[in-house]
Amino acid sequence: MDHISKYLTPEIKLSCYDDKFFKSEIVFDHHMLIWFISGETKIVQAEAIHHFKTGDIFLIPRNKPATVINYPKDGLPHKTVVMLLTKDILRNYYQSIEPQVKTNPIPGICSFRNHPLLASCLASLIPYFDLNEPIPQHLALLKINEAISILRTIDSEIDSVLANFEDPYKVDLISFMEKNYMFNMPMEKFSYLTGRSLTSFKRDFKKAFNTTPQRWLTQKRLELAHYQLTENNRKPIDACYESGFENLSHFSFAFKKRFGYPPTSLIDQKNSTLEFKMRK
């Protein structure tokens, strides 16, 4: 896979994937503002599946598990401008501003489509990527602060996300795992997002589910994949990645071991049933 990242600063980069496909399970440590130049992305979160294309702009909040699947489109690579809104930058921004924080933070991804103010701000960064010298830090910070100000102008509730600097607090383990088991994250990340140490996470998990986290996760992911194949007519590769498996071969092996037949047999069975109905 040919992946190129050009950094203006650690917080601003131009990301380009030339390959046909890229998938990753990610929990961002910082809010991430993304502007699509070309290509397509499917982002799977607990609440919904999001599709983004050329021109779209969206914000992925920190500490929200997601499966990110990138595709090229119309012969063009998957290309984005990415801006990290770090805790330090946001704290400095809000030092002189009273945030309008609501009681309930905005869940999931915030989509701004191709809003002209944000598009203009992010497009103005493109010429800097062609320079042979780094952008001055103070100028980069001006661009980031401009983006934050635009977000606050066009979304009256965005402060609930941007001005929230709390680490994950201890949450109900069963509820969290039932919503997020399809994300292929290390156990350390699951424990952090549930507000626990790794030792406490494993202890509480055993008490709640009477099994180990890895066995439970594999079982739940296989059940989800089976449902996706039989009820939602998903392709095996889509069911594989949207259920939290790393690759198709591992998924097929685990699926056959669990159910006694490969995932492709469900597709063949559906095709045979459809052909039979058409002949009648």
Walk me through the structure:
By secondary structure, the protein is of the alpha+beta class. The protein folds into 2 domains: 3-162, Jelly Rolls (Sandwich); 173-275, Homeodomain-like (Arc Repressor Mutant, subunit A, Orthogonal Bundle), CATH 1.10.10. 42% of the residues lie in helices and 20% in strands. The chain has helices spanning 87-94, 116-123, 137-154, 159-162, 173-180, 187-193, 198-209, 213-230, 236-242, 248-259, 264-279, and strands at residues 3-9, 12-17, 22-26, 31-38, 40-44, 49-52, 57-60, 66-71, 78-85, 110-113. Strands 1-2-9-4-7-10 form a 6-stranded antiparallel β-sheet. Strands 3-8-5-6 form a 4-stranded antiparallel β-sheet, with no helix packed on it. The N and C termini lie far apart (47 Å).
